[in-house]
Design brief:
The protein has about 250 residues and is α/β, with parallel strands linked by helices. The protein contains 9 helices and 10 strands.
Length: about 250
């Protein structure tokens, strides 16, 4: 189980994860001292150059994994249509991470209704060996046909949480898992309490075989909640005997 946060470049994490005097150019190094993985959303807004990904790889230790959120041009502008060029462009850059490249996340817009053909055609553009997680956000996607498309491509349905409850089906569509926790219901907002964290540990540990890769990312960054919750999640998982929850 690999646990981290959705991003690391947050000024309001000063005093939470980053010492006040630590320059921003060293934030990734500091982040990687505490977590084994991060979900980068930079490519969602503007695709970094391959050299940027290579730089991030050089600044992180062996075994560190970076998931990459796919460009909104593919998911929100093109809405999965004509995926060949944007997927190829994304991978040409992101593969600069080398062995540190983790899953690619396709977060779909909440207004995009289910289309099994579009999803299959998009997943077809990813070569074997590249893991893809899909986070649909319209309820029309929760069908057996969509589940079958994900399973056929070995793509993980992203398990998403809002306010301590799943907002997606808990389908296991691949031999590995991907979980995003967006907003907790505990105080101070948007934190997660131990009860919610423990529930997610049980769900994830019970769904996959021991030793399977399960990526867990906290997206509740305001006030450093993601940092605190990710560290607490790891501590609780370790106490529960979850394999590889080592930090």
């Amino acid at each position: 189980m690999l646990v981290g946060c959705s991003g690391w470049q947050y000024p309001h994490w000063r005093g939470v994860l980053y010492p006040p005097g630590l320059p921003q150019r060293l934030w990734l190094e500091r982040y990687a001292e505490c977590f084994d993985t991060v979900e980068s959303n930079a490519a969602f807004y503007r695709l970094p150059k391959r050299e940027t990904f290579e730089n991030w790889a050089a600044r992180t230790p062996g075994g560190f994994v970076m998931a990459v959120k796919a460009s909104r041009f593919l998911t929100h502008v093109k809405r999965l249509r004509e995926p060949a060029e944007p997927v190829a462009r994304l991978l040409a850059a992101a593969q600069g991470l080398g062995g540190r490249l983790g899953p690619i996340l396709l977060q779909l817009p909440p207004t995009l209704h289910a289309d099994a053909g579009l999803l299959a055609a998009c997943l077809d553009r990813f070569p074997a060996g590249v893991r893809v997680a899909v986070e649909p956000r319209h309820p029309s996607w929760w069908t057996g046909e969509i589940r079958a498309v994900l399973e056929r491509h070995g793509a993980a349905l992203c398990w998403a949480d809002v306010l301590g409850r799943p907002v997606t089906p808990l389908w296991r569509t691949a031999g590995w898992g991907y979980v995003r926790l967006h907003e907790g219901a505990a105080a101070p907002w948007p934190a997660y309490g131990d009860r919610a964290l423990t529930s997610w540990i049980r769900r994830a540990a019970g769904a996959w075989e021991p030793g399977a890769d399960v990526f867990v990312y906290f997206n509740n960054d305001p006030g450093g909640a993601a940092v605190r919750n990710a560290l607490r999640f790891t501590e609780l998982a370790r106490r529960a005997g979850v394999p590889d929850a080592v930090r």
